[in-house]
Specification:
single chain; 258 residues; alpha/beta; Arc Repressor Mutant, subunit A; 2 domains; five-stranded parallel β-sheet; three-stranded antiparallel β-sheet; elongated
């Protein structure tokens, strides 16, 4: 049977878990598989460490003393840190899974779990990160459509005279739609690229995120003939497309040339 040991240079993992009897065996097992693991027991300390040091993967427990795991993830993503993150929790209901993924986690694993499944999830996260790093469409950090501009490492997102202060999932959805501007992005692709998995997200969670982003775009008042509005169209039964409406200036020029 082939080994699951990483064939690449050792991945650096930050493990944030306050229960020593849980963390100890997992840390030893990961190190035996070739990973380099840093372990911390508090949310605030984990956030500081994740922002200060470059890690390949983060494993964060939901229930932590002080700052909980969900808040840690939200704070991390709000700082522009996109390190692949696996959230652990003993809470198994769907609402908590959705909440963790909405906060910015890439994958979710409920306790108790098998060590082999943990390894498989980590391999999937690193493969996905590698594919995105190699993909030409993810190398550009400055994106634009109409009056909207995005620096993928910064928030909020400038839009005409205003700006959009988006939650992590809405921010990542907007980035995905901007990168494929004018093209229909399927719901499966959205689940994979925004939530990290097409299996651990409900259709309702996607709909709610699309709706909130669409509303945020509509709420911005654009003034000036040269400003073009950005909107999200629904391709029924398939997915969504980001479109740019002609500005008043463009329409006027078109009328004069007709």
């Amino acid at each position: 049977m082939p080994s699951s040991r990483p064939s690449f240079s050792p991945e650096r993992i930050l493990f944030v878990e306050d229960e020593a009897d849980v963390a100890g065996p997992i840390k030893r097992g990961l190190e035996e598989e070739g990973y380099r693991v840093s372990w911390t027991t508090e949310g605030e300390e984990g956030l500081t460490e994740a922002l200060a040091v470059s890690y390949d993967v983060l494993i964060v427990d939901w229930r932590l003393p002080g700052m909980d795991g969900r808040t840690l993830v939200e704070r991390l993503r709000s700082e522009g840190n996109a390190t692949p993150l696996l959230m652990l929790t003993a809470l198994q209901d769907v609402d908590h899974r959705v909440a963790g993924l909405d906060a910015g986690a890439d994958d979710y694993l409920t306790k108790p779990f098998s060590f082999e499944e943990l390894l498989a999830r980590l391999r999937a996260l690193t493969r996905r990160a590698d594919r995105q790093a190699e993909s030409p469409d993810t190398q550009t950090t400055h994106l634009q459509a109409g009056a909207l501009t995005m620096d993928t490492a910064r928030r909020p997102v400038p839009y005409g005279p205003s700006s959009l202060d988006l939650r992590p999932k809405a921010f990542r959805l907007l980035e995905l739609l901007l990168r494929q501007k004018g093209t229909v992005v399927t719901r499966t692709t959205i689940a994979e690229r925004v939530w990290g998995s097409p299996y651990d997200v409900t259709a309702n969670a996607i709909d709610v995120t699309v709706s909130s982003l669409r509303q945020a775009l509509q709420d911005v008042g654009l003034t000036g003939d040269a400003l073009s509005r950005v909107s999200i169209e629904t391709a029924r039964g398939i997915g969504y497309r980001l479109t740019v409406s002609p500005s008043s200036k463009d329409l006027s020029s078109s009328d004069h040339s007709a």
